[in-house]
């Protein structure tokens, strides 16, 4: 019995390692394509080079599979409604080759892959079937893509936040030299890299279509969800209603941005120790379990071989989530 359990644990570790490796490759390919897009305008384009690299061929193959799954999933209204929540994560694709429903297809693809690995390990007698493990593995593999997408989205927002200050400084300098709003935005979208370049391309197009300046930046705020963008929107809305000098307004915006950046850096310095303590307290139970498993591999066997053990596992998981929430609330620092 103990040998079967150890074999099951080993198979889970192997499957998890393969899955993590594939996730790492997916993120790496995604970031490589993103960086390639950023430097494409500054690189020589060899039109005769039509051969795809292994990574590009693999990515293209996966995209074809995802698109085929999406055609089937679009028949379900429930999944289409669920996919709407992923529309804000379509920041990396301005050619509209990737739809929000494709994220759902990717989640199903990863789940089917993990389930396939588990079934293969059972068929070669490397593990025995366990319904709770099968369900838990399916749920984790289905929702793990959400964590990757959220992480990429947060990095995207952080990069826009850092580049937005450069854009405001550049626009303010353009206004002082006598240029109008369209010329200033055109300078920003030519001089700065993506992702702020992509956003200012949209702003430039909106203004050319005749939209009001405050409306254009309000649309920009809804896309990026940054407080700095909201401040620009409110300032421009006030400018359009009361009138005034746009140079003075952007001087005020630039000064406000520098003040916010200074306060933010000071706050990060003051809360760095609290964040480190939070990470330590969250990881401490996991480290404790790993140490016990290393010293006595059979110590936690009842938790994964008996029905009452499954119940205890669920209770432990709930308590651990509550523990994380409580610790996070204790360590939380309110921004003024």
Give the gist of this structure.
This protein has 336 residues and is mainly alpha-helical. It is 79% helix and 0% strand.
Q: Determine the mean pLDDT.
A: 78
Major beta sheet summary: none
Radius of gyration using CA atoms only:
25 Å
Strand content: under 5%
> Can you count the beta strands?
0
What is the subunit organization of this protein? Answer: single chain
SS element count, helices: 12
Estimate percent helicity: over 70%
Spans with pLDDT under 50 lasting ≥5 residues?
none
General form: globular
What letter string, H or E per element, gives the SSE order?
HHHHHHHHHHHH
Which secondary-structure class do the elements indicate? mainly alpha
- Cα(first) to Cα(last) distance is 58 Å
What distinguishing features does this structure have?
mainly alpha; 336 residues
Structural summary, described in words:
- With 336 residues, this protein is mainly α.
- The chain contains twelve helices and no strands.
- The protein is globular, with a radius of gyration of 25 Å.
- The mean pLDDT is 78.
